[in-house]
Specification:
Elements (H helix, E strand, L loop, with lengths): L2 E2 L1 H6 L7 E9 L35 E4 L5 E8 L1 E6 L2 E6 L3 E3 L5 E5 L5 E8 L4 E9 L5 E4 L5 E7 L2 E5 L2 E5 L4 E4 L5 E3 L6 E8 L12 H4 L17 E3 L4
Antiparallel strand pairs: 1-15, 2-9, 3-8, 4-7, 4-9, 5-6, 5-8, 10-17, 11-16, 12-15, 12-17, 13-14, 13-16, 14-18
Amino acid sequence: MPIYTRETLKTDKLPWVDIDDFEFFVLGRAAGARPPSTPAAAPPAQANGHSPFWGAYPPDPTSRELKPTSPRERLVVLHGEVSVECEFGRFTLKRRDFVEIPASGAKVTNAGTSTAELARIAGHWQQVIRNEICLFRPDRPCEYHYHDSDEYWMVFRGHFTLNYDGNEYDLRPGSMLAAGMGFEHGAVAPEEHFEAVVIATQLEGQKRDGHLTREMHGDPVKNRQVPASTMQPFRKSVARV
């Protein structure tokens, strides 16, 4: 089951997985920043015992230098507004915007009046056909479906049950699903609001884009090798009825 963390991507990655690394980070405000001597605030207490999102307390500095670690590297804005400086020039990105970081690197700086949340995704994909931020919740689930491409979910907010290839798994902030072509997946009954960066790579087979279902498009054709013994963290149960 190809569910990964940053750590397991380094040791257990299947050969077809195009993502080499991913991380989420926060850039703070330039004005009114907390002095270094002030103690960091604790994460908000939760009745169910977990923090609702990833992140550090206090936020990171107001800017950060990025240098690619893989052939492809993408910066995605999850919340807020940032300024990016690189060999292409200087420009502003807002929520859902993204940019490919050139080999020469880039500097990203918080440009808004609140903190900015960002994702850095490194890999070696040939093409990205879809880059989005998905949001699902109990009254807005994600149907069970498959693709004529590989798709990756990098979760940055919320805990939920993932339905994948006839099984159920617990996903949480900092985990990544690598859904190979033809492998059914979804979140048909999410327990709470969750968000993830979703990247779909080059189309194969019949090259149909979007969500495909058995009822509308026929049985899926799996085009990736996933050993039956490959079990990653957060497995919930062994059968989906």
